[in-house]
Amino acid sequence: MFIINCPYCGERDQTEFSCGGEAHIERPKQPTELSDDQWAEYLFMRKNIKGIQFERWNHIHGCRKWFNVVRDTSNDKIHAVYKMGERPPLK
Amino acid sequence: MKNKYSIFSLIKNAFSGHENWKRAWRDPEPQKEYDAIIIGGGGHGLATAYYLAKKHKMTNIAVVEKGWIGGGNTGRNTTIIRSNYLWDASAGLYDHALKIWEGLSQELNYNVMFSQRGVMNLAHNLQDVRDLKRRTHANRLNGIDAVWLNTEEVKKFCPIINTSPHIRYPVLGGTLQRRAGTARHDAVAWGYARGADEMGVDIIQNCEVKGIKRNGDTVEGIETTKGFIKTKKIGVVAAGHSSVIANMAGIRLPLESKPLQALVSEPVKPIIDTVVMSNAVHAYVSQSDKGELVIGAGTDSYVSYTQKGSHNIVEETLRAILELYPIFSRMKMLRQWGGIVDICPDASPIISKTQVKGLYFNCGWGTGGFKATPGSGDLFAHTIANDEPHKLNAAFNLNRFVSGDLVDEHGAAAVAH
Known about the structure:
The structure holds two protein chains of two kinds. Chain A is mainly beta. Chain A contains one helix and six strands. Chain A has one helix spanning 36-43; strands at residues 3-6, 10-13, 18-22, 52-58, 66-72, 77-83. Chain A has a four-stranded antiparallel sheet with strand order 3-4-5-6, with no helix packed on it. In chain A, a hairpin with a 3-residue loop joins strand 1 (3-6) and strand 2 (10-13). The model of chain A has no long low-confidence stretch (mean pLDDT 95). Chain B has ten helices and 20 strands. Chain B starts with 6 loop residues before the first helix and ends in a 14-residue tail after the last helix. The interface between A and B is medium-sized, with 27 and 27 residues.
């Protein structure tokens, strides 16, 4: 339970948003050439970090836009918010 | 058994004011080396140690726990036990556990207060009816008791449910597993701890794992807050923190850790003598022996290790409970808490070897691990001792995420995630 600062709408309650999970997982450029191991890595394996995590959120009950959030999963504190396509801060 | 609990020991200790009970397990300092180390002193970890010692004669082993035993999800769940899962692999796994539950208090000489009061799963729409009927048929083909109840039979079995057709999600029927029920969660951890300790297992509390030492593809030991401990076999049973341990060992897991909440009400006289679960509106409720209503809420939708959970999740659950049980409208809630559950993409657990020799993981139980505690420990002990899975947990290997042979139990998991 926390407040997210949507880069388009400003500060809103977390319940207005939907979490899209870990950010910066790139869709394979050559899907036909991927091995089963590489598919498993892309589809299922997650960092699931206790600490600073980069993740995607969608303002589903607001502007419906996707953006990225840097959040500490050990205390739910948000350290940064940045738009899709922008360079992640403090990486 | 040195200090066998019985009516005689109870009477004897009553005469001395219950001040001379011996402690149920030791509090040892870690040795330099063990044949195997279990990381995580919850129900599953302690059960693993117990069966390693009992069935596989591995007594030079230790359980390391960063807090106190049973203080994680073992002490935070809603204590529901059932085995009405859809697929053959899951039916085998969960019913194996249920069969052990049925004799567990006797085996451990410790009352785990296993109560087969039945678990009812409600259907609120046509698809629920189809899915639950299908699950009933699948269960019976696997030898698991399950019956379909129509609305009147649901009302008869649990009279306080509002079966009016005019509520937002009317009760269209439900399934009932009579062998299912509840148990006392702390007693499970304590019973297994006492049994394992008696066979020589060291249970080391307040000992946090800080690193896993590997030599190439083999494990060498663990770094802890109480120093380095050497071992050839490590069984990780760390629930919500499995990914944290996996990171230390340099392997990847398909898990996401999320807070799952539960709450209890003030204690009242007996009002509900069974467990009622409703997947569609997300409300499940039973009554503890102390008289509190035990209510399970949902998971948060994002990864978090905070052991709290969001208020809106509790609000949604209570809204559903009030519609189904108008009689509870003036109940006061007493306590609320959260546990971190490790959720697999297919809502089934992982009891498996890894690509690292001597490193085993028992994780991914998600929102429903408590019911499997004895079976999980038994099968994980088998996997560690023989370096091969038992046939009942062969399907729950880590490699299924590569082969695609998933065990999709989202329907039977009962908590939507």
